[in-house]
Specification:
This protein is α/β, with parallel strands linked by helices. It is 36% helix and 16% strand. The chain folds into two domains: 156 residues, Aspartate Aminotransferase, domain 1 (Alpha-Beta Complex), CATH 3.90.1150; 256 residues, Type I PLP-dependent aspartate aminotransferase-like (Major domain) (Aspartate Aminotransferase, domain 2, 3-Layer(aba) Sandwich). The protein has 14 helices and 17 strands. The strands form four sheets. It has a seven-stranded mixed sheet, with helices on both faces. Strands 1-2-3-15 form a four-stranded mixed sheet. It binds pyridoxal-5'-phosphate (PLP).
Protein backbone atom coordinates (compact mmCIF):
# COMPACT_ATOMS: atom_id res chain seq x y z
CA UNK A 1 0.00 0.00 0.00
CA UNK A 2 1.15 3.50 -0.72
CA UNK A 3 1.61 5.79 2.25
CA UNK A 4 -1.06 8.46 2.45
CA UNK A 5 -0.26 11.52 0.39
CA UNK A 6 0.35 14.18 2.99
CA UNK A 7 1.08 16.98 0.58
CA UNK A 8 -1.73 19.18 -0.69
CA UNK A 9 -3.66 17.42 -3.41
CA UNK A 10 -4.91 19.18 -6.53
CA UNK A 11 -8.30 19.48 -4.87
CA UNK A 12 -6.62 21.46 -2.13
CA UNK A 13 -7.41 18.65 0.31
CA UNK A 14 -4.80 16.95 2.44
CA UNK A 15 -4.97 14.01 4.76
CA UNK A 16 -5.49 16.64 7.43
CA UNK A 17 -8.33 18.56 5.83
CA UNK A 18 -9.91 15.24 4.92
CA UNK A 19 -9.70 13.58 8.31
CA UNK A 20 -8.91 16.11 11.03
CA UNK A 21 -11.54 18.24 12.74
CA UNK A 22 -11.98 21.85 11.76
CA UNK A 23 -10.86 22.73 15.27
CA UNK A 24 -7.22 22.66 14.13
CA UNK A 25 -5.84 26.18 14.18
CA UNK A 26 -2.11 26.94 13.97
CA UNK A 27 -1.76 24.51 11.06
CA UNK A 28 -3.96 26.74 8.93
CA UNK A 29 -1.49 29.61 9.03
CA UNK A 30 1.63 27.53 8.48
CA UNK A 31 0.53 24.85 5.99
CA UNK A 32 3.78 22.92 5.63
CA UNK A 33 4.37 19.29 6.48
CA UNK A 34 6.91 19.31 9.29
CA UNK A 35 9.01 16.27 9.96
CA UNK A 36 12.10 17.26 11.95
CA UNK A 37 13.17 19.91 14.43
CA UNK A 38 16.44 20.99 15.96
CA UNK A 39 17.31 24.03 18.05
CA UNK A 40 15.62 27.13 16.67
CA UNK A 41 14.42 25.43 13.48
CA UNK A 42 11.52 23.31 12.29
CA UNK A 43 12.09 21.45 9.01
CA UNK A 44 9.48 20.40 6.48
CA UNK A 45 9.53 17.07 4.67
CA UNK A 46 11.45 18.68 1.81
CA UNK A 47 14.20 19.72 4.22
CA UNK A 48 13.34 23.42 4.20
CA UNK A 49 14.12 25.06 7.54
CA UNK A 50 11.84 27.53 9.32
CA UNK A 51 13.12 29.71 12.11
CA UNK A 52 10.65 29.05 14.92
CA UNK A 53 9.38 32.21 16.65
CA UNK A 54 6.24 30.42 17.84
CA UNK A 55 7.89 27.57 19.77
CA UNK A 56 4.70 25.78 20.72
CA UNK A 57 3.27 29.05 22.07
CA UNK A 58 6.17 29.23 24.48
CA UNK A 59 6.45 25.49 25.21
CA UNK A 60 9.96 25.20 23.76
CA UNK A 61 11.99 27.72 25.72
CA UNK A 62 15.09 25.56 25.30
CA UNK A 63 14.50 25.05 21.58
CA UNK A 64 13.61 21.85 19.74
CA UNK A 65 15.14 18.55 20.79
CA UNK A 66 17.83 20.00 23.02
CA UNK A 67 20.71 17.51 22.90
CA UNK A 68 21.16 17.10 26.67
CA UNK A 69 17.46 16.68 27.34
CA UNK A 70 16.99 14.28 24.46
CA UNK A 71 19.96 12.19 25.55
CA UNK A 72 18.73 12.06 29.15
CA UNK A 73 15.35 10.80 27.96
CA UNK A 74 16.76 8.22 25.53
CA UNK A 75 19.05 6.90 28.28
CA UNK A 76 16.10 6.65 30.70
CA UNK A 77 13.96 4.79 28.16
CA UNK A 78 16.77 2.45 27.12
CA UNK A 79 17.42 1.64 30.78
CA UNK A 80 13.80 0.54 31.12
CA UNK A 81 12.82 3.53 33.28
CA UNK A 82 9.17 3.59 34.38
CA UNK A 83 7.06 5.39 31.74
CA UNK A 84 3.68 5.46 33.46
CA UNK A 85 2.92 4.96 37.11
CA UNK A 86 -0.10 7.13 38.02
CA UNK A 87 1.34 8.97 41.03
CA UNK A 88 3.48 6.17 42.43
CA UNK A 89 6.89 7.13 43.77
CA UNK A 90 9.52 6.81 41.07
CA UNK A 91 13.20 7.67 40.97
CA UNK A 92 12.45 10.10 38.12
CA UNK A 93 9.90 11.96 40.25
CA UNK A 94 12.22 12.03 43.27
CA UNK A 95 14.99 13.52 41.19
CA UNK A 96 12.74 16.17 39.69
CA UNK A 97 11.35 17.17 43.10
CA UNK A 98 14.85 17.43 44.56
CA UNK A 99 16.10 19.57 41.67
CA UNK A 100 13.05 21.84 41.75
CA UNK A 101 13.53 22.40 45.48
CA UNK A 102 17.29 22.86 45.37
CA UNK A 103 17.66 24.91 42.17
CA UNK A 104 14.43 26.89 41.99
CA UNK A 105 12.34 27.09 45.16
CA UNK A 106 14.94 27.19 47.94
CA UNK A 107 17.20 29.88 46.41
CA UNK A 108 14.13 32.06 45.82
CA UNK A 109 12.80 31.46 49.30
CA UNK A 110 9.51 30.10 47.95
CA UNK A 111 8.03 27.71 50.50
CA UNK A 112 5.87 25.61 48.20
CA UNK A 113 4.64 22.05 48.03
CA UNK A 114 4.16 20.58 44.58
CA UNK A 115 0.96 19.16 43.16
CA UNK A 116 1.31 17.19 39.95
CA UNK A 117 -1.91 17.77 38.07
CA UNK A 118 -3.07 16.40 34.74
CA UNK A 119 -0.51 17.28 32.07
CA UNK A 120 -2.10 20.41 30.60
CA UNK A 121 -1.87 23.99 31.74
CA UNK A 122 -5.65 24.16 32.04
CA UNK A 123 -5.60 21.28 34.52
CA UNK A 124 -3.02 23.05 36.70
CA UNK A 125 -5.31 26.11 36.66
CA UNK A 126 -8.35 23.97 37.56
CA UNK A 127 -6.44 22.57 40.53
CA UNK A 128 -5.44 26.08 41.64
CA UNK A 129 -9.03 27.36 41.45
CA UNK A 130 -10.49 24.34 43.24
CA UNK A 131 -7.90 24.53 45.99
CA UNK A 132 -8.46 28.26 46.53
CA UNK A 133 -12.21 27.70 46.78
CA UNK A 134 -11.87 24.71 49.08
CA UNK A 135 -9.39 26.46 51.38
CA UNK A 136 -11.33 29.71 51.72
CA UNK A 137 -14.86 28.34 51.44
CA UNK A 138 -15.58 31.18 48.99
CA UNK A 139 -16.81 30.83 45.43
CA UNK A 140 -15.71 33.62 43.19
CA UNK A 141 -12.30 34.36 41.77
CA UNK A 142 -11.03 37.64 40.37
CA UNK A 143 -9.61 37.37 36.84
CA UNK A 144 -8.53 40.14 34.53
CA UNK A 145 -9.52 41.51 31.16
CA UNK A 146 -7.63 39.74 28.36
CA UNK A 147 -6.45 37.01 30.71
CA UNK A 148 -5.98 33.54 29.27
CA UNK A 149 -6.00 30.54 31.58
CA UNK A 150 -7.07 27.60 29.40
CA UNK A 151 -10.28 26.28 27.90
CA UNK A 152 -11.65 23.69 30.35
CA UNK A 153 -14.75 25.11 32.00
CA UNK A 154 -13.27 26.39 35.27
CA UNK A 155 -10.22 27.87 33.57
CA UNK A 156 -12.32 29.13 30.68
CA UNK A 157 -14.46 31.12 33.09
CA UNK A 158 -11.25 32.98 34.02
CA UNK A 159 -10.34 33.54 30.36
CA UNK A 160 -11.42 36.79 28.71
CA UNK A 161 -11.48 35.90 25.01
CA UNK A 162 -15.06 35.73 23.68
CA UNK A 163 -14.13 33.31 20.87
CA UNK A 164 -13.02 30.71 23.42
CA UNK A 165 -15.73 31.54 25.97
CA UNK A 166 -18.40 31.25 23.31
CA UNK A 167 -17.56 27.58 22.77
CA UNK A 168 -18.45 26.67 26.36
CA UNK A 169 -22.11 26.15 25.53
CA UNK A 170 -23.03 26.79 29.15
CA UNK A 171 -22.75 29.47 31.77
CA UNK A 172 -19.26 30.25 32.94
CA UNK A 173 -19.53 31.09 36.60
CA UNK A 174 -17.50 32.01 39.60
CA UNK A 175 -15.50 34.82 38.08
CA UNK A 176 -15.30 38.53 38.87
CA UNK A 177 -13.73 40.37 35.94
CA UNK A 178 -11.47 43.30 36.76
CA UNK A 179 -9.48 45.63 34.48
CA UNK A 180 -5.82 44.59 33.99
CA UNK A 181 -3.02 47.11 34.37
CA UNK A 182 -3.26 49.65 31.55
CA UNK A 183 -6.75 48.58 30.47
CA UNK A 184 -8.19 52.04 31.02
CA UNK A 185 -5.24 53.86 29.51
CA UNK A 186 -2.13 55.42 30.95
CA UNK A 187 -2.34 57.12 34.30
CA UNK A 188 -5.31 55.10 35.57
CA UNK A 189 -4.62 52.72 38.46
CA UNK A 190 -7.09 49.97 37.64
CA UNK A 191 -6.67 48.44 41.10
CA UNK A 192 -8.52 51.34 42.67
CA UNK A 193 -11.74 49.78 41.43
CA UNK A 194 -10.92 46.37 42.91
CA UNK A 195 -9.93 48.00 46.18
CA UNK A 196 -13.13 50.01 46.36
CA UNK A 197 -15.35 46.98 45.71
CA UNK A 198 -13.54 44.99 48.40
CA UNK A 199 -14.25 47.60 51.06
CA UNK A 200 -17.86 48.35 50.10
CA UNK A 201 -20.38 45.78 51.34
CA UNK A 202 -22.86 47.12 48.78
CA UNK A 203 -20.47 46.87 45.81
CA UNK A 204 -22.42 43.82 44.65
CA UNK A 205 -19.20 41.85 44.46
CA UNK A 206 -18.81 38.92 46.83
CA UNK A 207 -15.57 38.56 48.74
CA UNK A 208 -13.41 36.49 46.40
CA UNK A 209 -11.43 33.35 47.22
CA UNK A 210 -8.51 34.35 45.02
CA UNK A 211 -7.14 36.54 42.29
CA UNK A 212 -5.59 34.88 39.23
CA UNK A 213 -3.18 36.93 37.16
CA UNK A 214 -0.50 36.68 34.46
CA UNK A 215 2.38 39.15 34.83
CA UNK A 216 2.57 39.29 31.03
CA UNK A 217 -0.59 38.26 29.18
CA UNK A 218 0.67 35.76 26.63
CA UNK A 219 -2.47 35.03 24.62
CA UNK A 220 -4.13 38.31 25.57
CA UNK A 221 -1.70 40.38 23.48
CA UNK A 222 1.51 40.79 25.54
CA UNK A 223 0.02 43.30 27.97
CA UNK A 224 2.40 43.71 30.88
CA UNK A 225 1.64 44.52 34.48
CA UNK A 226 4.03 46.98 36.10
CA UNK A 227 6.04 46.05 39.17
CA UNK A 228 4.12 48.68 41.17
CA UNK A 229 0.74 47.31 40.04
CA UNK A 230 1.71 43.72 40.87
CA UNK A 231 3.01 44.70 44.29
CA UNK A 232 -0.16 46.68 44.96
CA UNK A 233 -2.23 43.66 43.88
CA UNK A 234 -0.33 41.39 46.27
CA UNK A 235 -0.76 43.91 49.10
CA UNK A 236 -4.51 44.10 48.45
CA UNK A 237 -4.76 40.32 48.48
CA UNK A 238 -2.86 40.09 51.78
CA UNK A 239 -4.93 42.84 53.37
CA UNK A 240 -8.25 41.26 52.40
CA UNK A 241 -7.14 37.65 52.92
CA UNK A 242 -7.55 36.74 49.29
CA UNK A 243 -5.21 34.16 47.76
CA UNK A 244 -2.91 35.35 44.97
CA UNK A 245 -2.54 32.90 42.08
CA UNK A 246 0.07 33.70 39.44
CA UNK A 247 -0.54 31.78 36.24
CA UNK A 248 3.06 31.46 35.04
CA UNK A 249 2.33 28.83 32.42
CA UNK A 250 3.54 30.95 29.51
CA UNK A 251 5.62 33.70 31.15
CA UNK A 252 7.45 31.30 33.48
CA UNK A 253 10.40 28.94 32.91
CA UNK A 254 12.66 31.87 32.02
CA UNK A 255 10.65 33.58 29.29
CA UNK A 256 10.91 37.00 30.92
CA UNK A 257 14.53 36.58 32.05
CA UNK A 258 14.02 34.98 35.46
CA UNK A 259 12.68 31.49 36.19
CA UNK A 260 9.40 32.87 37.50
CA UNK A 261 8.01 35.97 35.81
CA UNK A 262 7.08 37.52 39.17
CA UNK A 263 10.63 37.57 40.55
CA UNK A 264 11.28 41.07 39.25
CA UNK A 265 8.32 42.34 41.27
CA UNK A 266 9.46 40.33 44.29
CA UNK A 267 6.08 38.62 44.71
CA UNK A 268 5.42 35.55 46.82
CA UNK A 269 2.18 34.25 45.32
CA UNK A 270 0.14 31.82 47.38
CA UNK A 271 -0.34 29.56 44.37
CA UNK A 272 1.61 29.30 41.09
CA UNK A 273 0.80 27.30 37.97
CA UNK A 274 3.49 26.08 35.56
CA UNK A 275 3.34 24.04 32.38
CA UNK A 276 4.31 24.77 28.73
CA UNK A 277 8.15 24.83 28.88
CA UNK A 278 8.43 23.01 32.19
CA UNK A 279 9.42 19.64 30.67
CA UNK A 280 11.94 21.44 28.48
CA UNK A 281 11.48 19.06 25.58
CA UNK A 282 7.87 19.91 24.77
CA UNK A 283 6.39 16.95 26.66
CA UNK A 284 3.02 17.39 28.40
CA UNK A 285 3.67 18.35 32.00
CA UNK A 286 2.02 20.72 34.47
CA UNK A 287 2.11 21.44 38.15
CA UNK A 288 0.58 23.68 40.78
CA UNK A 289 2.72 25.05 43.59
CA UNK A 290 1.29 26.38 46.84
CA UNK A 291 2.11 27.27 50.42
CA UNK A 292 2.03 24.24 52.67
CA UNK A 293 -0.81 25.66 54.85
CA UNK A 294 -3.05 25.67 51.78
CA UNK A 295 -2.60 21.93 51.29
CA UNK A 296 -6.09 20.92 52.38
CA UNK A 297 -6.54 18.29 49.68
CA UNK A 298 -7.75 14.85 50.66
CA UNK A 299 -5.81 12.07 48.90
CA UNK A 300 -6.88 11.80 45.28
CA UNK A 301 -9.43 14.60 45.57
CA UNK A 302 -8.08 16.20 42.40
CA UNK A 303 -6.77 13.24 40.44
CA UNK A 304 -6.00 12.21 36.89
CA UNK A 305 -4.39 9.29 35.09
CA UNK A 306 -1.44 11.26 33.79
CA UNK A 307 -0.45 13.18 36.90
CA UNK A 308 3.26 13.17 36.65
CA UNK A 309 4.76 12.11 33.36
CA UNK A 310 7.96 10.24 34.14
CA UNK A 311 9.54 11.11 30.80
CA UNK A 312 8.82 14.76 31.49
CA UNK A 313 10.30 14.42 35.01
CA UNK A 314 13.53 13.25 33.40
CA UNK A 315 13.78 16.06 30.83
CA UNK A 316 12.55 18.72 33.27
CA UNK A 317 15.15 17.70 35.86
CA UNK A 318 17.87 17.80 33.19
CA UNK A 319 16.67 21.25 32.07
CA UNK A 320 16.69 22.64 35.62
CA UNK A 321 20.18 21.29 36.17
CA UNK A 322 21.55 22.56 32.87
CA UNK A 323 19.92 25.99 32.66
CA UNK A 324 19.07 27.03 36.21
CA UNK A 325 22.04 26.07 38.38
CA UNK A 326 22.97 29.76 38.40
CA UNK A 327 21.87 33.06 36.80
CA UNK A 328 23.95 32.75 33.61
CA UNK A 329 21.06 31.61 31.44
CA UNK A 330 18.61 34.16 32.87
CA UNK A 331 21.14 36.95 32.26
CA UNK A 332 21.48 35.81 28.64
CA UNK A 333 17.70 35.94 28.21
CA UNK A 334 17.62 39.46 29.64
CA UNK A 335 20.42 40.53 27.29
CA UNK A 336 18.64 39.08 24.26
CA UNK A 337 15.37 40.62 25.47
CA UNK A 338 16.98 44.07 25.57
CA UNK A 339 18.25 43.53 22.03
CA UNK A 340 14.76 42.54 20.86
CA UNK A 341 13.34 45.70 22.47
CA UNK A 342 15.86 47.78 20.51
CA UNK A 343 15.20 46.13 17.19
CA UNK A 344 11.41 46.13 17.58
CA UNK A 345 11.53 49.80 18.58
CA UNK A 346 13.44 50.55 15.37
CA UNK A 347 10.88 48.62 13.32
CA UNK A 348 7.98 50.37 15.06
CA UNK A 349 9.59 53.76 14.38
CA UNK A 350 9.13 53.16 10.65
CA UNK A 351 5.36 53.44 11.15
CA UNK A 352 4.73 55.20 14.46
CA UNK A 353 0.96 55.46 13.95
CA UNK A 354 0.38 51.82 13.09
CA UNK A 355 2.93 49.98 15.23
CA UNK A 356 4.05 49.78 18.83
CA UNK A 357 6.19 47.44 20.92
CA UNK A 358 4.68 45.33 23.71
CA UNK A 359 5.81 42.72 26.24
CA UNK A 360 9.01 42.05 28.12
CA UNK A 361 12.01 39.70 28.09
CA UNK A 362 11.78 37.25 25.20
CA UNK A 363 8.03 37.67 25.26
CA UNK A 364 7.74 40.80 23.14
CA UNK A 365 5.97 41.72 19.97
CA UNK A 366 4.56 44.37 17.71
CA UNK A 367 0.98 45.61 18.02
CA UNK A 368 -0.60 46.72 14.75
CA UNK A 369 -3.35 49.31 14.55
CA UNK A 370 -4.75 47.17 11.72
CA UNK A 371 -5.02 43.46 12.71
CA UNK A 372 -4.99 42.43 9.04
CA UNK A 373 -1.48 43.80 8.78
CA UNK A 374 -0.35 41.64 11.69
CA UNK A 375 -1.55 38.48 9.98
CA UNK A 376 -0.16 39.66 6.62
CA UNK A 377 3.27 40.09 8.25
CA UNK A 378 2.99 36.60 9.71
CA UNK A 379 2.33 35.22 6.20
CA UNK A 380 5.18 37.26 4.71
CA UNK A 381 7.55 35.97 7.38
CA UNK A 382 6.42 32.40 6.69
CA UNK A 383 7.27 32.86 3.00
CA UNK A 384 10.70 34.01 4.12
CA UNK A 385 11.21 30.93 6.30
CA UNK A 386 10.01 31.99 9.72
CA UNK A 387 7.09 30.92 11.88
CA UNK A 388 5.60 33.71 13.96
CA UNK A 389 2.02 33.96 15.24
CA UNK A 390 -0.38 36.68 16.26
CA UNK A 391 -2.31 37.08 19.51
CA UNK A 392 -4.44 39.61 21.33
CA UNK A 393 -8.20 40.25 21.24
CA UNK A 394 -8.22 40.85 17.48
CA UNK A 395 -5.03 38.93 16.67
CA UNK A 396 -3.41 42.30 16.22
CA UNK A 397 -0.16 41.53 18.06
CA UNK A 398 2.70 39.72 16.35
CA UNK A 399 4.42 37.72 19.06
CA UNK A 400 8.15 36.94 19.08
CA UNK A 401 8.41 33.74 21.10
CA UNK A 402 11.82 32.57 19.89
CA UNK A 403 13.65 29.88 21.86
CA UNK A 404 15.53 31.37 24.81
CA UNK A 405 18.52 29.37 23.57
CA UNK A 406 18.51 31.14 20.20
CA UNK A 407 21.97 32.22 19.01
CA UNK A 408 22.66 35.89 18.35
CA UNK A 409 22.97 35.15 14.62
CA UNK A 410 19.60 33.37 14.52
CA UNK A 411 17.96 36.13 16.52
CA UNK A 412 19.41 38.72 14.18
CA UNK A 413 18.22 36.80 11.14
CA UNK A 414 14.72 36.41 12.60
CA UNK A 415 14.44 40.11 13.38
CA UNK A 416 15.70 40.94 9.89
CA UNK A 417 13.00 38.73 8.37
CA UNK A 418 10.51 40.46 10.61
CA UNK A 419 11.68 43.94 9.55
CA UNK A 420 11.53 42.96 5.87
CA UNK A 421 8.07 41.45 6.26
CA UNK A 422 6.76 44.53 8.05
CA UNK A 423 8.22 46.77 5.34
CA UNK A 424 6.67 44.62 2.60
CA UNK A 425 3.22 44.76 4.19
CA UNK A 426 3.31 48.46 5.04
CA UNK A 427 4.40 49.37 1.49
CA UNK A 428 1.25 47.67 0.17
CA UNK A 429 -0.95 50.18 1.87
CA UNK A 430 0.18 53.51 0.57
CA UNK A 431 -2.43 56.16 1.22
CA UNK A 432 -4.25 57.01 -2.00
CA UNK A 433 -2.80 60.10 -3.70
CA UNK A 434 -4.89 63.20 -3.25
CA UNK A 435 -7.05 63.99 -6.20
CA UNK A 436 -5.59 66.90 -8.17
CA UNK A 437 -7.51 70.12 -7.69
C1 LIG B 1 -1.33 28.01 27.45
C2 LIG B 1 -1.81 28.62 28.71
C3 LIG B 1 -2.72 27.97 29.55
C4 LIG B 1 -3.39 26.67 29.17
O1 LIG B 1 -2.50 25.63 28.96
P1 LIG B 1 -3.00 24.35 28.13
O2 LIG B 1 -1.87 23.39 28.22
O3 LIG B 1 -3.24 24.84 26.73
O4 LIG B 1 -4.24 23.86 28.76
C5 LIG B 1 -3.08 28.57 30.74
N1 LIG B 1 -2.55 29.75 31.11
C6 LIG B 1 -1.68 30.41 30.33
C7 LIG B 1 -1.11 31.71 30.80
C8 LIG B 1 -1.29 29.88 29.09
O5 LIG B 1 -0.45 30.54 28.30
Amino acid sequence: MNPPDLRPLKSGKTVFSKHESKVRSYARNFPSLFSRAEGSYLYDDQGKGYLDFLCGAGSLNYGHNHKLLREALVRYINDGGVAHSLDLHTTAKAEFLEKLEKLILEPRNLPYVVQFTGPTGANAVEAALKLARKYTGRRSIVAFTNGFHGVTLGALAMTGNSHHRGAAGQDLNGVIRMPYDGYLGEGVDTLEYLEKTLTDSSSGIDHPAAVIVETVQGEGGLNTASVAWLRHLQALCRKHEILLIVDDIQAGCGRTGTFFSFEQAGLTPDIVTLSKSLSGLGLPFALTLFRRELDVWKPGEHNGTFRGNNHAFVTAAAALEHFWSDDTFGAEVRRKGAYVTNRLTQIAATAPHSLHVKGRGLMQGLAFADPEQASAVSSEAFRRGMIIETGGPNDEVLKCLCPLTITDEELESGLTILAQSVAAVLSRRQPLPRAAV
